[in-house]
Amino acid sequence: MTLSHPGTLTGRLVALEPLAADHRDGLAEAVRDGELWRAWYTSVPTPDGMGEEIRRRLRLQDEGSMIPFAARRLDTGALIGMTTFMNIDASVPRVEIGSTWNALSAQASGTNPESKLMLLRHAFEVWDCPAVEFRTDFLNQQSRAAIARLGAKQDGILRAHKRMPGYVRDTVVFSILQHEWPGVRTGLEARVLRHLERRGENLPPQLG
């Protein structure tokens, strides 16, 4: 059993395109914006390592455990990062949204909440997932706060869960359950609308 690929997910601020090899140069430029790979508590590819990271994610896609995307900002047309459905268990079905990074200049632009809105909507409303999971390093306070702002609730902490360069990390696990999705969706839609209004757009987001 497999979950069907959603194809490109297009909102008002960002489009999530199925990851492909020809995204390499644009993503290498995006990761230089803020030198994101230098944060020791994250696993963000370097510009020179972007091609291998794309190949790794596509291998996982071929194996059925990941559906990776490249994120493109719609106001500039620039690629700004990557995100995925990962650790896919089609028998439930259950997915994790993760392996996400965004260029520094795209942060606080509304593109991340809209990306999460589109991914969560597909997981809950198309695949009928009973739960969607998020995981992050216990030491990554920025990521933990961002996940909580989505409306996800902390399930627990996996102690000494994953080996990182120089240490073994504790992993914090969050989830959103299907019955919580309507409230989470309303909150994310409001966040996207605020960004549209700042740009002078007063219509609610039309998400594809």
TrEMBL record:
Signal peptide: none annotated. SUPFAM superfamilies: Acyl-CoA N-acyltransferases (Nat). Residues 15-153 form the N-acetyltransferase domain. PANTHER family: BLL6696 PROTEIN, N-ACETYLTRANSFERASE DOMAIN-CONTAINING PROTEIN. This is GNAT family protein. It comes from Leucobacter iarius.
